[in-house]
Protein: Trafficking protein particle complex subunit
Amino acid sequence: MAAAIYSLFIINKSGGLIFYKDYGSTGRMDTNDSLRLASLWHSMHAISQQLSPTVGCSGIELLQADTFDLHCFQSLTGTKFFVVCEPGAQHMESLLKVIYGLYTDYVLKNPFYEMEMPIRCELFDLNLSQATQKDRVALLGR
Structure:
């Protein structure tokens, strides 16, 4: 059973969608919608850094709405990982860091992966499925 996650996006530093996974959300998106959403989030994230009244703002980390939360983690290289989840879902920041670890281990260390290109890696998919299981996400809080 999936955690309280609706979807996961990974965006490269240029704002291109390189990975999208739908976890059975009711409003399933087609490919064009997911590309548009990734591009929009990349732009909003960049604008928020410029609008921040404090120096060194790293962008939006949490966006809360009535029906969902959006949690974002940006790596030092500018790659953004974000999950859309149920409002109030716990341990999403920790989960994003785990997903980043899987990305570095199974995608970046894959000699056949071309940087900034869509992710197609079976080991990444397998380990991601295990990491996003509800019982494993609950363990992140311990």
Observations:
- Helices lie at 31-51, 92-108, 122-131, 134-139.
- The domain at 5-139 is CATH 3.30.450.70 (Beta-Lactamase).
- Strands lie at 5-11, 17-22, 62-64, 69-74, 80-85.
- The chain has four helices and five strands.
